[in-house]
Amino acid sequence: MMKPPAASVDDYLAKLPADQRAALEVLRAQIRAVAPEAAEAISYGLPTFKLNGNLVHFGAAARHCAFYPGAVMDVFAERLTGFDTAKGTIRFQPDRPLPPDLVADIVRYRVARNAEVAAERKARKSGARAVFLTR
Question: Within 13 Å of residue 91, how many CA atoms lie on the same side as its CB?
Answer without folding.
Answer: 9
